[in-house]
Design a protein that fits this description.
A hairpin with an 8-residue loop joins strand 6 (about 270) and strand 7 (about 280). This protein is α/β, with parallel strands linked by helices. Helices cover about 40% and strands about 15% of the residues. It folds into two domains: about 5-120 and about 225-320, Rossmann fold; about 140-225, Putative methyltransferase TM0872, insert domain (DNA polymerase, domain 1). The protein has a seven-stranded mixed beta sheet with strand order 3-2-1-4-5-9-8, sandwiched between helices. Strands 6-7 form a two-stranded antiparallel sheet. The longest helix is centred in the N-terminal third of the chain and has 15 residues, at about 65-80. The protein binds S-adenosylmethionine. S-adenosylmethionine binds next to helix 3 and strand 2.
Length: about 325
């Protein structure tokens, strides 16, 4: 189903100083929103997507692991939507448990808009920004036990280098790790600008991005176990969707998109084949139909309006009736 643009809330009602939601129109179409459908927004943020979904007639269960996002949405979304929205501070990796506690068996859609919000990035005290001085924190859930400073000051040089290479895809990972270990001999590194200045000295500037971008990204991903949460969240969503229900996932960098893409392939293939098998076998994990063959990306109009949307990719799956309790054949 496609929702005509005229039925969308005006963009100024969903854009807030908290976060500008990306690909709103595409998300509404992806989730095939109809009046009364129950959709989980697993990444509420400033509630931009949630408001658009509510406006299109959906009921919303909104999750965010950041209590600040929940507080903001109590003021800005609940007020707007009353009892058609329920908000829970939780990690979407435990979406199935959250729904169990709310006594909701199945839902019609799940939206995951992965990553951090502009509010989290922009507030120096959250520790995500390499442009402002703040505590080296980066926890989305402030009850989380490990902050970025713990990793920067305690991890071994090899471990840091591996982290920056794997999660940041930083070519100068080794040099960055060495500089950190060297600098922390003089005292702990617990300020974002301190770390950014240090990295500027050993990572060459390539293109418009700040040299610390990839190391900060890697730290953020490790602190919040972002890839682990995403992998668990996809499985949890599959358990909670009713047949015909839609899963829409927006990612912002290649590691996340690869994970989602692999999940899509693994759960949409009807048959598996291996050279050692006499014939193809049914895939016990086949539980979705791909709605789009390729990932969707923002339009030029959106890119001009919101440059932060530039790396967004939206993938959409539809739950089929088949079950997936059997393990993959050995
Ligand atoms: C990109 S923002 C979402 C913006 C939102 N769609 C909007 O319209 O404002 C991502 C949000 O998801 C939250 N988040 C990220 N990973 C999460 C997880 N594993 N569980 C719950 N919330 C998460 C972050 O705290 C952040 O508020």
């Amino acid at each position: 189903m496609s929702i005509p643009s005229s039925d969308l809330p005006p963009i100024e009602t969903i854009v807030s100083d908290y976060h500008v939601p990306v690909m709103v129109e595409e998300v509404l179409t992806a989730l095939a929103v109809r009046r009364g459908r129950c959709i989980v927004d697993g990444t509420l943020g400033g509630g931009g997507h949630a408001k658009a979904l509510l406006h299109a007639g959906a009921k919303i269960i909104g999750l965010d692991q950041d209590i600040g996002a929940i507080g903001y949405c109590i003021q800005h979304v609940v007020v707007y939507a009353g009892d058609t929205v329920r908000l829970v501070q939780a990690n979407f990796r435990r979406l199935d448990l959250v729904l169990q506690r709310l006594k909701i068996e199945k839902v019609d859609g799940v939206l995951l808009d992965i990553g951090v919000s502009s509010r989290q990035l922009d507030r120096a005290e959250r520790g995500f920004s390499f442009q402002k001085s703040g505590p080296l924190d980066m926890r989305m859930d402030r009850a989380g036990s490990v902050a970025a400073a713990d990793i920067v000051n305690e991890a071994g040089q090899d471990e840091l280098a591996r982290m920056f290479r794997v999660y940041g895809e930083e070519p100068a990972a080794g040099r960055a790790a060495h500089a950190i270990v060297d600098a922390r001999r003089k005292g702990p590194i617990d300020d974002t600008l301190h770390l950014a200045r240090l990295l500027e000295q050993v990572i060459p500037k390539r293109g418009p991005r700040h040299p610390a971008t990839k190391v900060f990204q890697a730290l953020r991903m490790v602190v919040n176990d972002e890839l682990g949460a995403l992998a668990d969240g996809l499985e949890a969503a599959a358990k909670c969707l009713s047949p015909g229900g839609r899963l829409a996932v927006i990612t912002f960098h290649s590691l996340e998109d690869r994970l989602v893409k692999n999940f899509c392939r693994e759960t949409t293939l009807a048959q598996l084949d291996r050279p050692e098998w006499p014939a193809p076998r049914a895939n016990p994990r086949c539980m979705f139909r791909a709605v789009n063959r390729k990932a969707l990306t923002p339009t030029d109009r959106e890119l001009a309006r919101n440059p932060r949307s530039r790396s967004a990719k939206l993938r959409v799956l539809e739950r089929t009736a088949s079950n997936f309790t059997a393990p993959l054949p050995g």
